[in-house]
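Below: protein 1.
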Amino acid sequence: MTDPKFIRNFAIIAHINHGKSTLADRLLEVTGTVDKRDLEEQMLDSNPIERQRGITIKLAPVRMEYSYKGSKYILNLIDTPGHVDFSYEVSRALAACEGVILVVDGVTGIQAQTVANFNIVANQNLKVIPVINKIDLSSADPDRVKKQLIRDFGFSENEIINISAKKGHNINTVIEKIIETIPPPQGILNNFRALVFSSQYDHHLGVIVYVRIKDGQLAYPETGKAGMALKFMATGAVFSPMEIGVFKPEKTIKDKISLGEVGYIATGLKTISLAQVGDTIMEESGSVKPIPGFIKPKPFVYLSLFPTDNDDYNQLRESLLKLELSDSSLTITPHANAALGKGFLCGFLGLLHAEITKERLFNEFNQNIVATMPTVEYVVKTRKNSLIKIKSAEDFPDPVNINQVTEPVMFCRIFLPVIYLGNVIQLCQEKRAKFIDLQYIGEQAKLEYFIPLAEMIIDFFDKLKSASSGYASLDYEYYEHQEVNAVKLRVFLNGKEAEAFSQITVREKAPAVAVNLVERLKNLIPRHQFRIAIQAAVNNKIIARADIGVLRKDVTAKLYGGDRTRKDKLLEAQKKGKKKMRQIGSVEVPQEVFLKIHRIN
C-alpha cells in the first residue's frame, strides 16, 4: 500500500485553447511516464475528433512518478474537458482531486471558462496553482495577465508561474509546486468508498469505471476466490470486480488500489447507465454515506436524427446504442416524422455534445444522417394543472388546453474587448436576453445576462463571434425554467396542414419566423400544374403567405396558324383544368425539401 502522504491528485483546468493538453504532454515527458519517442501531441486526447478540433471532450487520468528530495511521489493527473457542455464531468473530476493547475493564456488572458472553472474550484476548496502559458510568443504579455490574476482571483505575485508548455520552460517548477503545495489525500483505511468520475464500455470487461479511492482499499481476488461484492449507491447495481488497476497512461493491472489512489474497476456490467458519473461505490454489506455532489446529467438540447435512407434505420439504431455505451449522458428515444420517416429523438448536454455525436456517427459508423433543427424542453402546464414536457413541435398541445408554458433560461457570462461592447449588447437584446451586470476589467468587459436557451442553440455562438471579431468568450449554466409566451407555428400547403414543417417559437417573433419559413418553402418546393398557397398560422390565424406560381404547359405549341379563337379555346380549357387541380390536386414535396429545411446549417 502506498503511503497517502506521497500521493498528489490534481487536475488541469483552462479555457479552450489555453494549452491544457500541451501542458499535460510536457508533464508526461518530464516525469518519464511516456518515452519521448512514443510521445505525440495531445497524448491524453485519444479520440480523433479531439485531435482534429484541438479540444478535450473526454477526461483522461494518468499516473506519473517523480522523485523529489529523496522521496518518490505518485502524481495522479486528471485531464478534464474544457468546454462548458461538460462542466458536470469537470466538477466530478475535481471532486477526485485536492488541487488544480489553472492555466491562463499569456496572450488573451482571463476568459469566460477561466472564471467558471475557478468558481467551481473555489466552491470545492481546492489548492490552486496559477500558471501563465505561451510566454514564448512575441504577442504574450505575462505581466498584464499576472495583474489580472492578482486583481480578479486574489493570487499573490510569487504564486504565479510563467511557463511555455510547448517549449517545456519551467515544467519542473510546476511539478515541484504540486508536491509542495497540494495537500495529500485524507481518509480512513476501512469501510471502502470510491468516487466514480468517468466510465467507458469494454466488450470483454463490461462497464469500466474510473474511480478515486476515498476510503479503504480494494484488492484483486485470488485465483478461484470470489472478489469483494460492491454496489453503486445511486443505482443499487451489485457486482464483483473483474479487474482493477491504474493508468500509466494505458490501463495497467494492479493487485490492490487503496486510499488516495486513482484507478479503474472493471465491473462486468453490460449497461453503462448503471455506472453514473458522480456515484459512490461501496461494499455491498457496508454502511457508509455517499460522496456528496451526485446529480444525474440532464440533457438540455434535443435533435431528431433520421437516416437519409429509411432502409438504414436499424443500422442507425445499432450505432446510437453503441455510442450510448460510451456516453451515459446521451439519451435516445424512437421518433417518427411523417416526412422523414423513422428516426430517434436524442438528448444532449449542449450543441458541442450534439456536434461531436453526429461526427462520431459518421466517422466511426459511416452513418449519413439528417439532423433536425435543435430544440429545448418546454414544460406546459395544462388547464387541468398537469405538467407535460415538450421536446418537439408535434407534441405541442392545443392552445385551449394550455395554462402556462415555461422554457429553460441560462445564466451567461460574456468576456470581450470593450470596443465590441455595443455590438454584443445589441445581439443579446435581439435574443430576448435580460441584463444583469456589466463590469470593466482594464480593456476587457464582463457582461452577465439571462438568455433563453432556445435563442442560444440556433445561431447565437456564430453571431457572437461575428459581433466581436472572434474575441468574445462565453460561459453559461442552467438557471431555471421561466414563463414564456410560446406558440406553435403551423404550416399549410393549399389548406392542408404540413405537420413536418411546424415549429415552436415565441409569439413576438412568430411573424418574422413565419415570413422566413414560407419564403424558404416557396424557393424549395417545385412548381406544379396549379398554384400552391403556402400559409403559416398561429392559433388558426394566418400570419404569413407565399404563392408558388403555375408550371405553365404550352398547350398552343401544336398550332401553326389559323383562327385566333382556336388558341383562346385551348387556353380557356387549360385555365378551367388548373382551377380544378387546385381544388383537388395534392402538393408533392420532394424529400430534398425536408432535408434542406430541417438540416442544421
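Below: protein 2.
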Amino acid sequence: MKKIILLSFLCFGFLLNAQIFNPVEWSFSQNKISENEIELTFTAKIDSGWYVYSQYAGEGPVSTEFTFSESESFILQDKVKEGKAITEFDPNFDVVLSYFKKEAVFTQLIQISSEEDFLINGDVYFMTCDAGQCLPPEAVEFSFEVEGTQQSSSYSIWRLFFIAFLSGFAALLTPCVFPMIPMTVSFFTKQSKTKSKGIFNAIIYGISIIVIYVALGVGVSSIFGADALNNMATNVYFNIGFFLLLIIFGASFLGAFEIQLPSSWVNSTDKASDRGGLIGIFFMAFTLALVSFSCTGPIVGTLLVEAASGGYMGPIIGMLGFSLAIALPFALFAAFPGWLNSLPQSGGWLNSVKVTLGFLEIALAFKFLSNADLVLQTHLLERELFIAIWVVIFALLTMYLLGFLKFAHDSELKYLSVSRLSMAFLAGTLTIYMIPGMWGAPLKIINAFPPPMQYSESPSGLGSSSAISSSSHSVSGQHIGPQGLMVFHDYKEGLQYAKKVNKPLMVDFTGHACVNCRKMEEQVWSNTDVKNTLMNDVVLVSLYVDERIDLPTNEQYTTTMAGKKKKVKTTGDKWMVFQANTFGTNSQPYYVLLDHNENQLNEPANYQDYGSVPVFKDWISRGLATFNK
C-alpha cells in the first residue's frame, strides 16, 4: 500500500507545477533480415536527467511493455529484446532498478506469413522519471507497413520459365508448327517491299504470338485466382479429368485420330489476316495458334497445370517462356533468311517427334490419375503398379525409336540417325533404371512422379529391413511415413508424445498429390544426417491437407478462412484450416518446429527456400539448438 501511495505521489506531484514535461521521443523503423523475416526497432530518445525503465525494471515502477495487435499475417519470434540497461539505486523508489538514459533501443523479430502487404499495429507502454519525480505511465501507438512475401522464389520462377521454354521448343518441332517457319518467313520477305520491312513484319508476327499465349496465361490466372490454382493439384475431379484429356491427346499424337478446333474459327481468323497491316499480322499469328492446336494444345494444357503451383504469376511466366520459344525462330529466320537452307526438310522425323510426345503425354497422364488415387486413398494405383506402367510406356518408346514399332502416319525408316539413337538410348536407360523401383528402389531421378514409398504394396521395400525395424519401435497413433520414418497423422497425439519423450514437435503440412512434398522427402529427407535427425531428435507429425476421410458429424463445422466461409468436413479440411489460421499460409510442403508450449523454435520452412540438404539441415539444427537451451 505504501508503494502505491508513493508511486501515485511521484507520478502526479508534478501537476502542482504549470510546466508540461515531454522528455521522451519515440521513433520506429524496420529492417528486412531475409525474404520472410523483418526486425522492428523501437528507439526512445531521452532528455538529459530523465530515464525510461527496462522491461524488467524490478519492484515499484511500471516496466516498459510492448503490445502487438493479433494478426495472421505475422508471427512474433521470441520476445522483445533490449539493450544493456543501467542497474542502479533509484531514489524515487528507494530500491535498485534497471533503466535507460539518453537512449533506449528495443527490437522485435517478426516472421512474415502473408503474401500480401499488411500493417503491424500496437503500442509501447512506459514510464519516465528523473531524480525527483515520475510522469504518469504513457502508451505510444506504433504502426509498421510491411511488404508481404511470395512463396515462390526467383529461382522457381526462372526454373518454370526454362521448362516452359523447352516445352515451346518441343512444340516447335511438331508437324503442325515446324513447316510454318519457312512458309511464314518466305511470305513476309516476298510480300514486303524492303528487307527491313520484312524483318519488321516477322518481328511483329513473333510478338503477336507471345501476346496471344501470355493473354491465355493472364486469363487462366484471372479466372481461377492464385488460391484456386494452388488447390487444383489436390482436386480429385480435376486430376481425373486431366488424366482422361491427356490420354485422348496422347492417342491423337500416336495417330489414332486428329483433334482440330472448329473450322469456322480458323476460317474467321484467316479472313481477318487478309486485312493487312498490323491487325492482319496479329490475326495471322492467331491463325497459327488455332491451326497448331492439335500439337500445341496438350503441351500448353500440361504446362498450365504445372505452372499453377507458381500462384498467380505461374501461368503467365509459363506462357511467356512457351511462346518465346515458338516466336523466336520466325523473327530470326526473317532477319537471316539464308539460315532457312540449314533447316532439315519436313518429313517423317516430324511425325516421330509427335509420336514421342504422345508417349510422354500418356506417361504424364498417369501422374494425374495417381494424384486422384492418393487423395481418395483407394490404393488402386500404388507405387509398384505405377512404375510398371511407366516401364512399359518407356520400353515401347525405346522400341519405337529403334524402329521396331510403327504407327499409322510413320514413313519408312531406312536408317537410324544419331539423334534418334541418342533418344532411344536415353529412353532405354530410363526403362532399365525404373525396373528395380518395383521392388523398393528409391528412383531419385523421377521421385516427383511415382506415389511415395509408403503408398505401395510393400512399404518397407522387398527384402528391406530398415523400415520394418523403425516400425517395431512405433507407438499407438504412429504410422510408417516417408523414408520409413514413423509419423503421427494427428496433431494432438503427436504433441502429447513429444512432451512424453521430451523432444520438439515437427509439423509437416503436406498433401498426397503434392509434387514438391515428394521432392523434399526423396531428395532432402533421404540424406543420412537429415533422416537420422528426423528419426531420433524430433517427433514428426505429417498432416495431409487433401485427406478425404470424413470427420464425425459432430466435429464438422463452418469457419472463416481468408475472409471466406469454409466448410470443414474432412480430415484434410481440418488440417488446411489449422495451417491457414495458425500460420497464415495454405501452401505445401510447410514445416514448423514447435516446443511443448506450441511456440515456434525458428522460422517455418518451405520447399522453395529450404529445398536443399545444407539449408534444411541448418534450419532443423537451429530449431533443435533453441529447444535444448
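The two ends are 39 Å apart (CA to CA).
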